Protein: Acyltransferase
Amino acid sequence: MPKNPLTPLTRGLARGGARLAHAAVQTGRRWVRQAGTVTAEHPGRLRFGALGDGTRIAYPQGTIFGEPWIRVGAFCIIAEQVTLTAGLMPDLDLGPDPILHIGDGVVLGRGSHVIADTTVTIGDNCYFGPYVYVTSTNHSYDDPHEPIGRQWPRTDPVSIGPGCWIGTGAVILPGARIGRNVVVGAGSVVRGTVPDHAVVAGAPARVVRRWTEEEGWQPPLRTPPPVPLPEDVTPGQLRALAAWEAESSG
Structure:
């Protein structure tokens, strides 16, 4: 039985159409993400108490309300689906002072939540992995006869010092006071006070390593510190090195 001469042509057209559709979808997606990004120059419907130069809140955004009481510093990166809230619910008058203060150079990973029903402060140059949860509010369960979700919550301010790294999935509970340059391990649950230059991990989180001026790191670090790149290395040299490594590993 003779083959249909249009079959190869039809298949070719189908493949070409699929490629065009794919390219159109990807181009449209990039355009939507760029157009939906919130910046100081293009805040959209959001009216933050402050939104610093160079800061970008990626699209799609998570839940955001109480933005007049949210102040975000300069050169921050807030990833997709990050929730930022000030107050227990939208449309409250929270007074003259900010409730949620995010410093300069902060990175909030995808899907993170920062819930500020009372004051939450995140210091400069803090980096959050994805799905970090920070809250200044906790449910009450004092009355054994009332559903927990209907009991009035307790609030306690939260502060995270500058230079911290908060690992993926960490939970920062009300009343946490985290010092400067602290590492919070992935999945940790932090409450109470954490000293400067500490590494904490676990649920509840405990100090597993700490640096002091007198003793250095205790317990001692098991690996040598990374060697920084020379200051005169150019982006072109880095790209050439990456290409060489890819060829070598292939």
In short: DSSP finds two helices and 24 strands in the chain.
